[in-house]
Hints:
Layout: E1 2-6, H1 11-22, E2 26-31, E3 43-47, H2 53-60, E4 65-68, H3 77-91, E5 96-100, H4 128-142, E6 146-152, E7 165-168, H5 180-193, E8 199-204
Amino acid sequence: MNILILGATGRVGSNILTLALSDRHQVTVLARSPEKLPTNSNLTIVEGDVLNEDVVEKAAKDVDVIVSALGTDKTTTLSESTPILIRVMKKQQINRIITVGTAGILNSRVEPTVYRFESSESKRKTTRAAKEHLAVYEMLSASDLDWSIICPTYLPDGPAKGEYRVEEEYLPDGGREISTADTAAFVYKELFDRNHSCKRVGIAY
């Protein structure tokens, strides 16, 4: 499989990259800081910004699937880059994209008419990041692409335990955290299993 990974120098994305290269997949990475990436014969690095459509087109050439582990970093990069990704995917006939979101955009259990970040379930003091991820969800939902959004709750760094709970559209009941490595492992697994097409998926221990 030829995989394009966005956000491959981040905490979750770097773990996804390691898994893909370990299994000898062809991987392309679009990165602003290529010096942070490993050297590998199966890795193609395209230097640039996800907000530059020409660069995204170059990175997406001949790939089968896109994985986005881009963070918000107090910017509007997610909401601005998603229309670019959708256009490039349609132009290059790439149908599948998996993104890493946030548990805030899952449905609330206590207030069914709102998202978690809008309900008393959320402990976040700011909703900025959740609103960015929500914009991605709304745009992907309105497209005809085959998408999945993996939505972890609190994300400490840590090794993969290999045991966690997942639930479509909701955070697993009582879920408090999930490591970056286990989140990456589930994203990578979903690349091949495709069990959650066009769904948000909550993940937690």
